[in-house]
Design brief:
7 helices, mainly alpha, 4 strands, f41 fragment of flagellin, N-terminal domain, 6% strand, two-stranded antiparallel sheet, 71% helix, 272 residues
């Protein structure tokens, strides 16, 4: 190999290798400091695209879980009112039965009727209860659609806005101030309690379905996060090994570049 001054091929090659090593070292440091394998589209264009879609799906799943949880809270609030209504109806049924006592005076019957009327007014007031401005009960009944999947279309469940007015009308004309009226009231209130029991059973079934839907969303989120992690998160053990390798290559490359630059010094001895 000839000895030349203008070109130092060994130094050029050493500089090129050192430059590549520095780029890889910086990339490795960036991955370890961020915890991510993909920090830019340059690192893995395809992987980044998949990860972005998965990240968006995870956010939507979180939002869908929140919506389902709110719907569950709606049903729980509704059931709380229905539970109170059951207590009121049970007391009204009790008053009607007490009014059948032949030993009660007209005054006693009037007192029973007074409490009966007050309780009936309370049940009527319950029909206007709301959850965050949304009516818990609607005359004629209605169904609210709850989306239970992150895509907002493939899966849904219905929650019922119960028709409590219809139940109330069954005993609206009841009068327990007489034995005859009290006997009739027992019959209609018993029917109202049965109707209320059916409504609460429907409420419980809807709560059960939404609970399972909420669990499914949580499982899907866990799986999506695991899949996304395999794409975008750095393997710290493997990357630490690479970092050590690039550190050694950087040090040896720097030393070899210095040696390559020193090699031309022999030319000066030829010129002396």
């Amino acid at each position: 190999m000839s000895v030349v001054i203008n070109t130092n091929s060994a130094a050029t090659a050493a500089s090129y290798n050192l430059s590549n090593t520095n780029v890889n070292l910086q990339r490795s440091l960036n991955r370890l400091s961020s915890g991510l394998r993909i920090n830019s589209s340059f690192d893995d264009a395809g992987g980044l695209a998949v990860s972005m879609k998965m990240s968006a799906a995870i956010r939507r799943t979180d939002a869908a879980t929140t919506n389902v949880a709110n719907s569950l809270a709606y049903l729980q609030t509704q059931d709380g009112v229905l539970k109170s209504a059951d207590k009121v109806l049970s007391r009204m049924s009790e008053l009607s039965t007490l009014a059948l006592d032949v030993t009660k005076t007209t005054t006693d019957m009037a007192l029973y009727q007074k409490e009966f009327n007050v309780l009936r007014s309370e049940l009527t007031a319950m029909t206007s209860e709301k959850f965050n401005g949304i009516s818990l009960f609607v005359s004629g009944g209605s169904t609210l659609k709850v989306y239970t999947s992150e895509d907002g279309s493939s899966q849904s469940a219905g929650i019922t806005q119960t028709d409590l007015d219809t139940i109330n009308t069954t005993y609206a004309a009841s009068d327990i101030s007489s034995v005859t009226g009290a006997a009739a009231a027992v019959t209609v209130i018993t029917a109202a309690i049965e109707s209320l029991a059916n409504v609460r059973a429907q409420n419980g079934a809807e709560q059960s379905r939404l609970s399972y839907a909420e669990d499914m969303l949580k499982v899907n989120k866990t799986n999506l996060e695991a899949a996304n992690s395999r794409i975008i998160d750095v393997d710290v053990a493997s990357e630490s090994t690479q970092l050590a390798r690039f550190n050694i290559l950087q040090q040896s490359g720097t030393a070899m570049l210095a040696q390559a630059n020193q090699s031309t010094q022999s030319i000066l001895r030829l010129l002396q």
